[in-house]
User: Fold these one by one.
Assistant:
Number 1:
Amino acid sequence: MDFTVSEKMQAVVGMMNEFVGRELIPLEPEFLTKSFRQMEPVMEEKRQMVRQMELWAPNHPPEYGGMGLNLMDHALVSEALGRTPIGHYTFNCHAPDAGNIEILHKYGTDAQKERWLRPLIEGKIRSCFSMTEVELAGSNPVMMDTTAVKDGQDYVINGQKWYTTGADGAAFAIVMAVTNPEAAPHMRASMIIVPTGTPGFNLVRNIPVMGHSGDSLFSHGEILYQSCRVPQENLLGPEGWGFVIAQERLGPGRIHHCMRWLGICHRAFDLMCARASKRVISYDNKTLASKQIIQSWIAECAAEIQAARLMTLHAAWKIETLGVKEAREDIALIKFYVANVLQKVVDRALQVHGGLGMTDDTIIAFFFRHERAARIYDGADEVHKATVARRILKGYAGRDVR
Ligand SMILES: Cc1cc2nc3c(=O)[nH]c(=O)nc-3n(C[C@H](O)[C@H](O)[C@H](O)COP(=O)(O)OP(=O)(O)OC[C@H]3O[C@@H](n4cnc5c(N)ncnc54)[C@H](O)[C@@H]3O)c2cc1C
């Protein structure tokens, strides 16, 4: 595998890093104390600057105004933008819109693309993805209660979902609902586009997460679909293909997430090293950095960040060269490994900051609160570990090893 970064990508990532440091990190104190809705006017100014720099929608198709970067190149972008919670949104490559854009581009009809895909890539609207249900284990989403029943020219949707990230203020949801109850479990559900203004689309609440309900993109909605009627032309892809499409959405999405987490790791690591170097802990001017235990944490974090980064880039390379199916094991490995490195690095950074680490005077506490979820969404640690172990052990069944 060749780790050379092209000159073009060096320039792109350099410009993004510079923009994050100059324009976005200074906005974080505001981000941590205001609602995101209050932030939206200033965010729009920054987004306009990004459009003018021609760095808009880096991973999205050029025919709709994106940069059309491939997975490897976008991995580097995701790492650079991950250093701040507002990076991906400013460049219009944030979850869940990024995943929805990918599937709309691949499976949308021309009419769906004009109505939903174009304004999403232009950054005029937001969307959400509504799969997980309150009462059933999201880890095995084929167990699904939400139904979409045909009635005349329409589907009528009933069900209760939660953790529909960014539902608050989104223009539409892509909803997973059972359309073919008699089919095999993985072919029962379909994806259906539901405008959030449709009667029967009820945003019950933004779920409080670690003490914060959040708002707008930075929220997780509980949604009650009550006789929510949409035309059958809102079906996305073939009927019964919901899980097939969801799998496609998740493969590259995990690379984006892992590289974003590595961006967070770099930021937390920088803050940790800077704090350790300047925090004086005795009258003879010794700093925290002089303590062996802190040095040991720093060395461990540096090694684990590097390992996680190489694993993720390797998985991205494998997806690009061999396809998602061949890279399944690598994707499962990075999903739990990088999420745990992230948690360890953020925790160590917080610890080095002591009481300051618990405050919102640095970004670390925000990362600590919100990124704990990395070990749960897109497949909990245990599920990925079981997948990997089963595949490995299959190769040993009946094998005599000496
Ligand atoms: C911040 C955040 C954002 C999210 N955004 C979205 C979104 O936009 N759209 C959406 O549809 N969903 C979203 N989700 C939901 C997410 O996909 C689910 O939370 C996840 O799939 C786990 O499902 P669950 O919460 O029902 O946990 P469960 O399935 O009940 O699992 C609970 C725990 O049990 C363990 N476990 C589960 N299965 C196994 C197993 N087979 N073997 C061993 N242990 C197991 C794991 O430790 C797991 O954490 C989001 C979740 C979070 C936290």
Note: Residues 7-108 form a domain with the Butyryl-Coa Dehydrogenase, subunit A; domain 1 fold (CATH 1.10.540.10).
Number 2:
Amino acid sequence: MDRPINAMEFEGEFSSCPRCAYRDGFHATFRQDGGVVRWLLTCPSCREVFDIGLTVEPGHPGGNKVLT
Ligand SMILES: [Zn+2]
């Protein structure tokens, strides 16, 4: 991902793009950052990337089993 990430303060709801006002949801991108994975939101209309502070803990797909 070569686009700059816009850090946004989450205030109750983040459902429309602050840049272009697109309102039909975001694409998700996950990026490893130390011991956590940052959950980034990309606007499908203007492609702007936002970080509203969401992180997830890396786990194992499907619980303990990984399909091969
Ligand atoms: Zn947008």
Note: The mean pLDDT is 88.
